[in-house]
TrEMBL record:
Cofactor(s) in the UniProt record: a divalent metal cation
MF terms (GO), sorted A to Z: hydrolase activity; metal ion binding; nuclease activity
Organism classification: Eukaryota, Viridiplantae, Streptophyta, Charophyceae, Charales
The DDE Tnp4 domain, residue ranges: 226-390
InterPro entries: HARBI1-like (IPR045249), HARBI1_dom (IPR027806)
Cellular compartments per GO CC: nucleus
Protein name: DDE Tnp4 domain-containing protein
Family the entry assigns: Belongs to the HARBI1 family.
Amino acid sequence: MEDDIGDAPGAWRLTPRERSLLGTTLLAVARHMQTVNDVGQASGRQTSRREAAIAQALMDVHSSPGLWDAPFLLSNAIVAGVMPRETPRWWVKRRTGGTWRDLSIANDASEDYFHDKLRMTRTVFNDIVAACSPFIQRRLTHYREPLQPDHIVAYALYRWASGETFESSTSSFGMGKSSGIKAVDHVTKAILAAYPEKIAFPTGRRLLQVVRAFGDKGFPNCLGAIDCTHIYVDKPPNAPSENYFDRKQQFSIVVQVVVDLDMRVVDVFVGYPGCVHDARVLRNSSLLRRAEVGDIFTADPIILRGGVRTTGYLLGDNGYAPRTWIVVPYGGSEQTRDITLFDMRQKTTRGVVERAFGRLKGMWRLFLRHHKTNMNNLPQQFTAVCIIHNLLLEAGVPFGERLLLDPVDRDREGNTVPINLGLQDLSQPVSQADATEAALALRDALRMQIR
């Protein structure tokens, strides 16, 4: 290398041979990048222009005053679009995260861990990812490697299953809080889009199975059981406290759910503040409107004792008034033997909805305890979880009874206690005085079926 000080004291310049070697190296790098970027997609004219520009850049390098000018010119050529470029790996932020890394390990020993964290088998998880992927594909940018669909779905499931805050849960998946919030929102929308018919009243063969199962319990042509649960939330900002204060003096949102005897959710309605009574929630839900116009109860009609005809109905508690499609207990402390027997049988059979709440809240603990939430998408999130609930039932994924025990609360003796299902005490049962004769006749006819 020549010791040519030039205008800058202490500076040095390349010899002609070194310049030639540097030019050859830069040309090789440029052509390699051009190949990687698939020059086949470019027209011959575009390619010629690029090569000419590269050659000009290299000629400039030969005449540059210093060694550091060559890489500077090359980077300028790339940024200016003279040479094709691929995503610069040194800009990509690598994603890490202990829980996600452990979930990604595919071996038999990790299956229990996988089920514990995401509440499902790897096979079911892969099916859900495949169904949701078209709705959550992310675009590769020059600044960040996008989270893949399986990563996004896994995080949303973990958030719902663990109930952890965004601040706590996102670090385990190698993402920031804002990415975690977006992931839950994207997965919620993807599940609703991928499984639009997964929550629906039964039809066809499934309808026959449901009707037969309830008939074996003494309730022919019954399609399900209805009840409400409460999701506890931190008080929404700017919302009047009395609106969300339920009868247990907690802030909550009411969820109305209908299930069949397999605990499959066939209808869900979310969103009313905790102060609203179950009967009012029903009156304002689409369920009532669809039932009244005959869109739901479409089983083959049967004739019960007394000539009572029915094409279907639900079992409910005394939070509802008797209707021609909702059968509630008689209630009261002093009743005849047959009425007492009917009320006991009705309560036992409709208890399936409480077991469904136990499975839903035991598995998806975000909805078990108080938590900060976006009130705008809470109904969609819970509906998405109900869809997953149905998918797991269909896949035969087991439910661990330990999930029915609260991991935090203890009784006075220090023993574990059952989880809070969010049910409200019926301190004020709905009056049956205004029930129609047809509604009361249906209940009487069913009572005479019970033996």
